[in-house]
Design brief:
20 helices; alpha/beta; Rossmann fold; binds uridine-5'-diphosphate-glucuronic acid; single chain; NAD; six-stranded parallel sheet
Length: 447
């Protein structure tokens, strides 16, 4: 019975922490979630998830009802309650720099450590620059009254937004960075094997490493994924020049299992709270370590990605005869990807804002991200539906490939628009269907 094995705390209740807390409670652990944001904690304690994540509201409410999942703002309560503390706070990009802002991670350790009077395991899950765990372990040892009894492990998380519960409960692998001291490492490994026993029983690989290797697994995974997306988008640029079709190219490449089809979807490129900031923070950290040459290709990956947004705006402007002034643009999608309400570094919202800045009258609709989009870009107009956003449009842009946009019939939209122009930023529509219905269809990387 997990409940008697370990009591867990989860520090930081964003996408990562809220998901981890609810999933661990679902596995039978007693879990206490902590956040310094009292309003967020009040909502979570009331069963109200502050963001959109399919399946998570149900797990949250189930955990609360069972009594196994509770929330607090008190570090004293967390230190008293838990013997394993997961640190899940954010590490956003610093304003005006590539490096990650470590202040939330540092603050969490500084608040928790002085309260650890008895042996405890602190498990970092946040995405951090390599070298952080070593630094935090020293801080923990210095600040914790338990001394050597307070041990740090590093356990990066690979969940995707939109699939957060599935990815947490069915991870591809569990990676654990352990301290150099053999006894401390053995204790930490044993505790984490117990915590993750249900996954390990299902055959999930459990990989132990030193601290820096475990930290690097996380950022190198995201760097690889970003590189794969920018690779296919670079091919899209060449396809545009050569009048070739990148969607066919991608499909043909995907049948080689050494390449594979995942993250080979050409379009407007990557955004969100992870991939863009992680590759930048990785470059910044490599520079500090004197290994910047190893990662100069990531600068190119970033630039290819940003060029897709510029290209999208150019295609739309060209369709309108060279200017957005006095023209109406319907934008479908604001979230950085479907099944999310997250607009952090969203390619869709970036394109919408750029067209607005160039004089277009832009109306945006997204199935889930409207509130966040309004907050991020208050000067844009927002519609109640796809049809509403397209009303009177001289061009419609599909920028986030929600199912309801993919399945849209050209006939329905035709009645709303002023001109039948559509630019498919995610290669989500069938060009033949739209052209047959009298639309001028344009896409990224396709003739
Ligand atoms: C990403 C990683 O996939 C997770 O494994 C990782 O744990 C997470 O970052 C993190 O570091 O926390 P996430 O940001 O939720 O997850 O989103 P992804 O599903 O990776 O999508 C990222 C972006 O790539 C989206 O904007 C998406 O539209 C774009 N994308 C994805 C493409 O443009 N083409 C593709 O073929 C796939």
């Amino acid at each position: 019975n997990n409940a008697v094995t370990h009591r867990l705390t989860v520090i930081g209740t964003g996408y990562l922490g809220a998901t981890h807390a609810a999933c661990m409670a679902d596995l039978g652990f007693e879990v206490l979630g902590l956040d310094v944001d009292a309003a967020r904690i009040a909502r979570l304690a009331g069963g109200d998830l502050p963001f959109y994540e399919p399946g998570l509201p149900e797990l949250l409410r189930k955990g609360l009802a069972s009594g196994r999942l509770r929330f607090t703002t008190s570090y004293a309560e967390a230190a008293e309650f838990g013997d394993v503390h997961f640190v899940c706070v954010g590490t956003p990009q610093k304003a005006g720099e590539y490096a990650a802002d470590m202040s939330y991670v540092d603050a969490a350790i500084d608040a928790l450590a002085p309260l650890l009077a008895r042996p405890a395991l602190v498990v970092g899950k946040s995405t951090v620059p390599v070298g952080t765990a070593e630094r935090l372990a020293a801080r923990l040892a210095r600040l914790a009254p338990a001394g050597d009894g307070a041990v740090l492990a590093w356990n990066p998380e690979f969940l995707r937004e939109g699939f957060a519960c599935h990815d947490t409960l069915h991870p591809d692998r569990i990676v654990v960075g352990l301290p150099g001291d053999a006894a401390a490492a053995a204790g930490a490994e044993a505790a984490l094997r117990e915590v993750y026993a249900p996954m390990l029983a299902g055959g999930t690989p459990f990989i132990t490493a030193d601290y820096p290797t475990s930290e690097l697994v996380k950022v190198s995974a995201n760097a690889f994924l970003a590189t794969k997306i920018s690779f296919i988008n670079a091919m899209a640029e060449v396809c545009e020049a050569a009048h070739a079709d990148v969607t066919k190219l991608s499909e043909a490449l995907s049948h080689d299992d050494r390449i594979g089809g995942k993250f080979l979807g050409p379009g407007l490129g990557f955004g969100g709270g992870c991939l863009p900031k992680d590759i930048r923070a990785f470059m910044a950290r490599a520079g500090e370590l004197g290994a910047d040459q190893a990662l100069t290709f990531l600068r190119e990956v970033d630039e290819i990605n940003i060029r897709r947004r510029i290209r999208m705006v150019d295609i739309a402007r060209t369709l309108l005869g060279g200017s957005f002034i006095g023209r109406t643009v319907g934008v479908l999608g604001a979230a950085f990807k479907p099944e999310s309400d997250d607009v952090r570094d969203s390619p869709a919202l970036d394109v919408a804002a750029t067209i607005h800045a160039q004089g277009g009258k832009v109306t945006v609709y997204d199935p889930q991200a409207m509130a966040n989009a309004r907050r991020a870009q208050p000067s844009l107009s927002f519609g109640e539906s796809a049809l509403d956003a397209a009303r009177g449009a001289h061009v419609v842009l599909l920028l986030t490939e929600w199912a309801e946009f993919r399945e849209m019939a050209p006939g329905g939209l035709a009645a709303a628009v002023a001109e039948r122009n559509i630019v498919d930023g995610r290669n989500a529509l069938d060009p033949e269907v739209w052209r047959a219905a009298g639309w001028t269809y344009r896409a990224l990387g396709r003739p």
